[in-house]
Amino acid sequence: MTRTKSRRSDGPAPARLLLAGATGVVGRAVLALALADARVAQVVAVTRRPLPPHPRLDNVVGDPAVLAGDAECWRVDAVICTLGTTIAKAGSRAAFAAVDRDLVLRVARLARTAGAGAFALNSSVGADPRSGSFYLRTKGEAEAGLRDLGYPSVTLVRPSLIDAERAENRPGERAGLLVARVFRPLIPARYRAVSPEAIGRALLEGVLAAAPGVTAIESEDLA
Ligand SMILES: NC(=O)c1ccc[n+]([C@@H]2O[C@H](COP(=O)([O-])OP(=O)(O)OC[C@H]3O[C@@H](n4cnc5c(N)ncnc54)[C@H](OP(=O)(O)O)[C@@H]3O)[C@@H](O)[C@H]2O)c1
């Protein structure tokens, strides 16, 4: 597959966009938005499970942890990463970090080496490499690693609790969502639950605008 080089007379070249995490709650929202957006020429989605076909979707089914570094899928203009797991699902802190930090950075490094110029990460409110919380520290380490990869444009989207129904059983998150919905007006804007679509829009606009440097979008700015 070749990179899109054509330019429209009325705007910038449409983007070939890599999406990692397209089968997840936020990834599905990004995929729907990107496939409906005329600015996106093609979405390359690397997933472990196949996605429904779409004329502008190149679905590479495989494990992003082992896909070869010279694979065509990394040759994109921009990357949106919504990969993530939980400590409970992964089975250990190390296994969680292997996804939420190391796999994120593998995808980012390979795409950057292949020429990608913009990267948007679905991170978390409170992400901080110096945090006392292992979860937030790991998210912060992913952000810090990303800053070091030399992308001209990085967008860090830091949502609070994601407001979504999940097939998967996450009792803590479910209880948190219930509280977040009932007491929404009393909760500070930064900690209110946010929709996957709002996160998806911020990620997509981040890579399409490709503002130079690092832009952090906090949860209260997601709408
Ligand atoms: N839950 C919240 O309230 C919340 C709040 C703030 C931030 N976040 C962050 O938001 C991000 C996305 O959340 P989400 O709710 O969209 O997650 P999700 O629904 O659990 O989706 C996670 C995605 O990551 C993929 N993935 C997980 N482990 C993988 C592995 N070992 N190898 C390859 N792919 C793997 C999944 O693929 P499969 O379908 O193949 O498993 C799926 O596409 C995460 O980084 C999370 O930490 C979540």
Q: Could you characterize the architecture of this molecule?
A:
- It is a single chain.
- The chain is α/β, with parallel strands linked by helices and 223 residues long.
- The protein has a single domain, classed as Rossmann fold (3-Layer(aba) Sandwich), CATH 3.40.50.
- Helices cover 34% and strands 18% of the residues.
- The chain is built from six helices and seven strands.
- A seven-stranded parallel beta sheet has the order 3-2-1-4-5-6-7, sandwiched between helices.
- Strand 5, helix 4 and strand 6 form a beta-alpha-beta unit.
- Helix 1 packs across helix 6 and helix 3 runs parallel beside helix 4.
- The N terminus is likely disordered.
- Bound molecules: NADP nicotinamide-adenine-dinucleotide phosphate.
- The site of NADP nicotinamide-adenine-dinucleotide phosphate (NAP) has 23 residues, from helix 1 and helix 3.
- NADP nicotinamide-adenine-dinucleotide phosphate (NAP) binds next to helix 1 and helix 3.
Order of helices and strands: EHEEEHHEHEHHE
Number of helices: 6
CATH class: Alpha Beta
**Unreliable stretches, pLDDT < 50, 5 or more residues?**
1-10
> Termini separation (Å)?
36 Å
Give the tags.
seven-stranded parallel beta sheet, Rossmann fold, 223 residues, binds NADP nicotinamide-adenine-dinucleotide phosphate, 6 helices, alpha/beta, single chain, disordered N terminus, globular, 18% strand
